[in-house]
Input
Amino acid sequence: MQTRDRLPRGSSDGRRAPAVDVVVVGAGPTGLLLAGDLARAGVGVTMVERRDRESNLSRAFAVHARSLEVLDARGLADELLRIGTPVPSLSPFGRITIDFSALRTRFPYMLVTPQWRLEHLLLRRAEEAGATMVRGARATGIRQDPDGVDVELSRADGAADTLRARYLVGADGARSTIRRSLGMPFPGESVISSVMLADVRLERAPDEALNFASNEHGFTFFAPFGDGWYRIIAWDRRRQLPDDAPVTLEEVRDITRRTLGDDLGMHDAHGSPASTATSDRCPATGGDGCSWRATPHMCTRPPAAWA
Ligand SMILES: Cc1cc2nc3c(=O)[nH]c(=O)nc-3n(C[C@H](O)[C@H](O)[C@H](O)COP(=O)(O)OP(=O)(O)OC[C@H]3O[C@@H](n4cnc5c(N)ncnc54)[C@H](O)[C@@H]3O)c2cc1C
Output
């Protein structure tokens, strides 16, 4: 992997010359795909990512047909198909079934695979095309002038740095610092809160590849990552806590029992130094946890049954 601890610099007299053509802030799927496209077109690209290493945690668990088509146009879909699980239909609320097999596409299904696998693929493509990565650097602000843009960076050790480019792309996610720096709004609303997400192991596999259960208590949703781990997304109507309240395995188990009727022998949500399998995936201290709570910021309303 190509990484840069030291930033590329322009001349130091007067206004610095841009050191690169384009800086892409954020190495999620959007930034990685764009960086790869630009680099393959011969544009000099530097990606800036606040994480100091590739993540093996995941938010998205499914790649949709249109995303697969976009990847296919770049020769990337087949590799993802080899490691993902195609799901031809989904029944999120019992009476409603979404039938992907009716889609007129080479990919008439939803492909279950964790987001980090897609990111890994996109990163490899971008770096092979010549894009470089600055890791462990958070963009904190920007300054524009007619010749380019200065991106202010803060390193994990607190050191400050500036990277100058002709153009900047903000691909730094829903809470984008770049968007805020430009004064751009992000309209939408949060209609449910305290949604729990956890990556867990199960003693008993759910009946279906994607398992969704909902009733008057809330909902639970399981998606398999194919490596023995499952993503669970759960919401307990009676238990609404702030986003920074830790998620416990017991509360995820509890809502699973009340919605699904069985906790499927759920274990290992947080990882433990005693277990090599989980400590590989979930460091017991530092870094990301393996479970968290969130209030999704949505631009559309979910089914009224949730509210
Ligand atoms: C729980 C959950 C489940 C989801 N499930 C699905 C799904 O199944 N299928 C699907 O298609 N989509 C799903 N999504 C949506 C999907 O995850 C997002 O659409 C996708 O991650 C957006 O990609 P992105 O690259 O724009 O942003 P992100 O993935 O958010 O990436 C932004 C990157 O920028 C970095 N960054 C942020 N701020 C800075 C900064 N100031 N400086 C430097 N770096 C910074 C972050 O570390 C991150 O790596 C889900 C989202 C959530 C939250």
Confidence is low (pLDDT under 50) at residues 1-13, 270-289, 298-307. Residues 195-306 form a domain with the Alpha-Beta Plaits fold (CATH 3.30.70.2450). Residues 25-31, 48-51, 59-62, 64, 115, 138-139, 171-173, 177, 197 surround flavin-adenine dinucleotide (CB under 6 Å).
